[in-house]
Amino acid sequence: MTSLTVFIRYRLHATSVALLAVVLFSTGCATPQYDPVVGREVRNYYTIDEDIRLGRGVLEDAISEMEERGVPLNQDKAKLNTLSNMMHRIAAVSHYPDLPYTVTLIHTNVVNAAAAPGGQLLFWEGLYDPEIGLVQDEDELAAVMAHEIAHATARHTTRTLTRTMPVSAAFLIGAIAAEIADQSDLAVALGTAFVLYEGLWLPRYSRAHEHEADRLGLFYMAEAGYDPRAAPRIWRRVHEKQGHPGFLQYLSSHPSHRDRYRALEKLLPEAMAVYVEATGEYPPDYAP
User: How far apart are CA 275 and CA 149, in angstroms?
Assistant: First the structure.
């Protein structure tokens, strides 16, 4: 049995009971509920505890994958401590300060950061790269951190899983039926489609989710005492360097860089007011 076959069957068995239970018994939860984090009604079949369990599973999968490939993790203790302190500082002012937040530093020259459900954060060292990286100072790193924490507090992953559940269930039920009928090849084929549809670890966020995380993250960083001007500054700089392959690793599924910095700049006066309330003063170089 190939490693892919083992992986597919593991994923099927690991998710089948939970997913089928949700599909079969979630009728009463189908009505959208008001979410104070995003300020509107959303649909999410999952509980916060399920977000946390899912996120821990994602983190375990990600770490196992990195270890199998020989990718070092958490080797730079100074950077890791900076990330951890920043994470806790921003999480403390978020809508869900008590999630079991963790951060893992991945030592590859990839420009990326990610959030699994429940506050499991991944940062790739390429973010710091002076040539292709995304951040140039502490405030810009805080902007990325706050954005990822916002994905967790807005529960974008489980909201996406809820939206895509009918298609996922169709793949999964077909694979389980094939497995029961001992049609192994069909089961693996359907399972592969299911895993690819999921996006291996997690589904991709929509552009609407990215804008939502930008907005929430802007106010999280401001309330935590980081200069919110850093957030639009990142995307304006990336827009000016648009097309650099290093950036594309991080930004391929995101809104346009220009749309992001323009949307964030419109929110800056309000965010700066939050920053002043948190710190007691404007930055020295800021003219209100």
Answer: 18
DSSP letters spanning the chain: --HHHHHHHHHHHHHHHHHHHHHHH-GGG-S-EEETTTTEEE-----HHHHHHHHHHHHHHHHHHHHHTT--BS--HHHHHHHHHHHHHHHTTSS-TTS--EEEEE-SS---EEEETTTEEEEEGGGG-TTT-S--SHHHHHHHHHHHHHHHHTTHHHHHHHHHHHHHHHHHHHHHHHHHTT-HHHHHHHHHHHHHHHTTTSPPPPHHHHHHHHHHHHHHHHHTT--TTHHHHHHHHHHHTTT-HHHHHHHTTSPPHHHHHHHHHHHHHHHHHHHHHHHSS--TT---
Closest to 71 in 3D by CA, of 35, 140, 122, 20 = 122
Query: How do residues 93-106 score in pLDDT, each as one tens digit?
Result: 999 999 999 999 99
Is the pLDDT reported for residue 34 higher than 90?
yes
CB 79 within 8 A of CB 133: no
| pTM for this predicted structure | 0.78
Does 9 have pLDDT greater than 50?
A: no
CA angle 141, 84, 224 (to 5 degrees): 60
Q: Which residue has the tokens 């039920």?
A: 173
Q: What are the structural domain ranges in the chain?
A: 3-51+156-198, 69-152+205-279
As a whole number of angstroms, the distance between CA 76 and CA 62 comes to: 19
- 171-198 average pLDDT score: 46
Question: Which of the listed ranges 110-114, 130-134, 145-149, 184-188 does the model predict with the highest average pLDDT?
Answer: 145-149
* 81 has pLDDT over 80: yes
Q: What is the phi/psi pair of residue 35, to 5°?
A: -110, 110
Q: pLDDT confidence of 248, banded at 50, 70, 90?
A: very low
